[in-house]
Amino acid sequence: MPLSTPHAPQRTPGLQQQHSRAAVTATGLWRAYGSGEAQVVALRDVSVAFASGQFTAIMGPSGSGKSTLMHCLAGLDTTDRGTVDIGGTVITGLGDKALTKLRRDKIGFIFQQFNLLPTLTAEENILLPASIASAKADPAWISQIIRTLDLQERLSHKPTELSGGQQQRVACARALATRPEVVFADEPTGNLDTRSSGEVLGFLRKSVDDFGQTIVMVTHDPSAAAYADRVVFLADGQIVRDLPNPTADDVIDTMRGFETRVPLAGEAA
Amino acid sequence: MLRAALKGMAARKARLALTSLAVVLGSAFIAAALVLTASIQATVDALNAESFAGSDVLVQPVAPESRGDSLIQQGVSAETLANVEATEGVERIGLTVSGTISAIGDNGKVVGGLAPTMAANWADEAHDRELRDGRAPEADGEVAVSAKFAADSGLGLGETVTAYTPTTDQTAYEIVGVYGYSGGRDSISGGTEITFTTAEAQRLLFDGEDAYSALAIQAAPGTDADDLAAALEPVVGAESQVRTWEDYNAEATAQSAELTGLVGNFLLGFGLIAVFVSVFLIANTFSIVIAGRLKEIAMMRAIGAGRGQVVRSILAEALILGTVAAVVGAAVGVAGGAGLTAAIANSFLDAGQVSVAVPPTAILAALAVGIGVTVLAALVPAVRASKVPPVEAMRAAAKADRPITGITVTGTIVTLAGGAAMALGLTHNLGGDKADLAGTAVGAGLVFVGVTMLTAWLSKPLVGALGRLWSWNFAGKLGRRNAGRNPRRTAVTASALMIGVTLVTATATLLTSVKASIEDYFGEAVKAELFVTGPAVSELPASFDPAVMDDIRAIDDVEAAVEVYYDIADIDGTEQYVNTTTDFGGIVDLFGGEIADGGTGALADDEIAVNQSAADELGVGIGDTVNATFSRGTEAHEFTVSAILADNENTDGWYVSPAYVEEFYTTKPMMALVDVADGADIDAVTAAVDDALAGEPEVSAQNHEEFVAEVTVFFDFAIIAIQLLLGLAMIVAVIGVVNTLILSVLERTRELGMLRAIGMTRGQTVRMVIVESVTIALFGAVLGIAVGLGLGWALQNALADSGVDVFAVPVTLIAGYLAAAVLVGLLAAIAPAARAAKTNILGAIAYE
Q1: Contacts of A104 in chain B (CB under 8 A)
Q2: Among A154, B314, B592, B819, which residue's beta carbon has the most beta carbons within 10 A?
């Protein structure tokens, strides 16, 4: 278990109050895979709201349903019951076309594997969502992100010519390029060393603080979760703890609680 | 290891199925070619056996020694017949009078295209005729016609048909009967036939002489055919020969075997090209499959598998794949060959009964080629795989592409060597025409192979440039980049199409150049504007009544009109092409020829003119004498060479005075040249000439363009034939592109998932794959066209001295090839694009 990072984030007090409108709201989500004996219920009646301009981490042990929750929130997976609302649009029940358009316009993604297109340069990768939408990206905004991520010197490089940290920074820029309603980050530091992780998380923090970006991040790294404004803990497909303003130690303590197998109901209460 | 190979194969069923399709195709073509050849042969043999069936011995005219003589029917004389009748052991004699004839249908045209109408006496026993309507011809003005003739001519019972031969005038006959043949057939091998009384048949075919085409003799009971033949030998005249029916049939069988062999070789050629192209495809697939399994192979090496075992396991896989594909191919080929035989036999031969023969060689060859090619193609990838160090198993998969330096350097050397050979050949530096032509051809082949090796290197700039065509949208741009991502794979995939397109482009370019050269020559050198001539493709040469020449000369704006007669004569013991015309100087002038030496443009009865190379061939010059015997001539005439013509394809040959026309095979002119006044309306004159020719069914007036088209009609057939070849290469190419794309889509699952996750629509995904596919296909086609044009140009230059002095690009055909390439790309993209569009986003982006 990694220890808390030495450069713990500084949070701006009162930010949550400024952004009370919910960017993403899930109500009564159910999601099960398989059927009969082999059925696995990944989400059981999950209701959660993510305030606009807030950085939320979703944590939980393997198989707790945290990835499923994120996929359902992002319109990548379907739900059996319940609704997901992104920026005022109920996405549950939308067809593939509408969902694709919604992901394109309102959602940004950061993946563990970076997932940059090897045939495109860093700059082209950053502009990819706009290109797909045949839209013109806002040049001032793009150059601001590039400057913030310190990628000016790398724009003409292909992903194979970049380090892992640089690739993930390009992926961050890509996620933010369209000013999405919400950015979903799936284990964004899972493939990075400590230093690069710090850079990426620092940027995510900064984009929330400076640009008012909404970020939902799935992670199992307590020190990564410590960058968030709030940590939502999942276990067995249910939200078991909602921790505001976490520190790495808080997170570790909470997770230890799961490992000692304290009855879940008691924990949640 | 074998079990590992089998399990590995089971896991990649779809790709293996696609790859094996190429092997199936190649094997099937080979099996089909051999089955078709054998079956057609069997069918034709059965047809041959019907001819003169029931006879024991045949007396027929001696086969003429030269082609010139063969134009004239020599008959078995009445004297020989009398001697045969008097011979002991002869039970019965069937009398046959047969030959070719021209008959005019209800549309005013001569009946029958490639195959001429046959004439026979009704009493002839060579075929088993069955009267269907009416009766047999009893008077000289009556005929019975075959059902096929009735159908083709549009003439029926009670109507009148006009028929004639080169030596007889047009005569009207009343159709009193319509007949078919045994087995309910309408024709024998699809031909048309008219039967006459024996006397009338002799008038038409033997100038009224009492002569026969065959005596079909039945031996008396107890008399052996061989003994009878021996007994007849001394009694027949020198003009006749005696053969047992068995010998006759064996000879006919051998003759048709030659022809069917030709057709079979043509199909075999197609099969071999399919096999050749599939080598690339199989090698590519195995390379791809092995690249995906490097870790697995390294792991096997790590746990103790030897290099030999790795090679053997991959070869075992190839062997299994090749065997399955070859067996399927052989089966498909046998079925296809049988079906094709039935189609050909029914539509062309009207065989009634089709014999299907499956020679063991057909199956063996299909299996050997299919299996051999697959194993051979897998050998290189297998050996390469065995070189994977075991430590690779522990490393993350290295995706770096193998360098293409080696093959690029080799390809450059081969291309340069080929180019040098071509240059030397073209500049006549190899000593001797044959060496020059051979050097050019070998050089062309080397360039072809060299460029094939260079495709990987060429793919970088070319794919990028081609892909720019699609860059109007982003999905297209991504597709273009993807096509250029793996040069080696793109190159091998495109090679399949390139090979086919190169071959057809080179051939089409050469043929188009030949055609353009002829057209060019006509445009510049030939003075005559119009030609009176018949179709180039017909068994009997077209001819017309010379009396129409006066009508043509009388037409306004016609300045000169000269008719030409042709014959093949024996000159000093050699077969020679002889012309005559009422105006020797005029014909040379109108055809753009030139009298190089001697002569005044007129020929006395004992004078002969000839072109330079024909004179050289016989070693004669001005003032020398030659002896010539014409087709119908009974004795040689002595001529003195009075003029030498400059060599010119249009005027080459010998010229004599028109005094000998009656001894020519065709006693009527076969062509006329018409010189139209400058500035006159050619179309109006053409129409007037056609009016003058209204009573001549075999010929019509043609302008340069039509005449050249008629002369070069064989090129059109050749071009069509090679397009079929392209079609075949295209099928294989589609398979190759599908294979490569499916693999690419699988490899890029994660990428596709990401693109879909961040908002790429299914439509955009489909477009991306289509662009990749079409770009690869176009790359192959463009390369093929470029190399094909280059080779065509080289061949044209090599043949420039033979008169092919114009280089012409078959623009329409090339546009067609590009369109075909786009079609290949589109077809090949269907399955991979569908798969890409259906990418499961969650599965694709999930962690490893």
Answers
A1: 758-760
A2: B314
Instruction: Nearest chain B residue to A187 by CA: give it.
Output: B847
Q: What chain A residue is nearest to B484 in terms of C-alpha separation?
A: A119
Average pLDDT over residues A174-199: 91
pLDDT at B402: 62
Segment holding A202, helix H or strand E: helix A194-211
Residue A123 lies in a domain: yes
Range of the domain at A214: 52-62+102-268
The total number of structural domains that make up chain A: 1
Q: Which candidate in B473, B758, B775, B838 is best for mutational testing of the A interface (most A CBs within 10 A)?
A: B758
Domain boundaries, chain B: 53-245, 456-529+705-848, 543-697
Asked if this assembly's ipTM is beyond 0.95, the reply is no
Instruction: Extract the residue ranges of chain B whose pLDDT is less than 50.
Output: 66-70, 396-400, 848
Position B639 scores a pLDDT of 92
**Scanning the structure block, which residue is given the tokens 């022809």?**
B259
What amino acid occupies position B501? V
C-alpha–C-alpha distance, residues B423 and B419, integer Å: 6
Query: Which of A4-13, A217-226, B703-712 is most confident?
Result: A217-226
Per-residue pLDDT, B848:
42
CATH number for position A189: 3.40.50.300
d(CA B489, nearest CA chain A) in Å: 16
Q: Is residue A186 part of a domain?
A: yes
Q: For position B542, what pLDDT does the model report?
A: 79
Looking at the domain assignment, is residue A147 inside a domain? yes
Q: Do B473 and A115 touch (CB under 8 A)?
A: no
Answer yes or no: do A77 and B842 touch at CB < 8 A.
Answer: yes
Main-chain phi, psi angles of B677, to 5 degrees: -60, 145
pLDDT grade, residue A113 (50/70/90)? confident
| Dist CA B569 CA B581 (whole Å) | 16
Average pLDDT of A107-131?
Answer: 88
A96 Cβ under 8 Å from any chain B Cβ: yes
* Contact of B28 with B330, CB cutoff 8 Å: yes
Position A83 pLDDT exceeds 50: yes
Amino acid in position A108: G
| Residue A131, min C-alpha distance to chain B (Å) | 6
For residue B478, what is the nearest residue in chain A, using CA coordinates?
A119
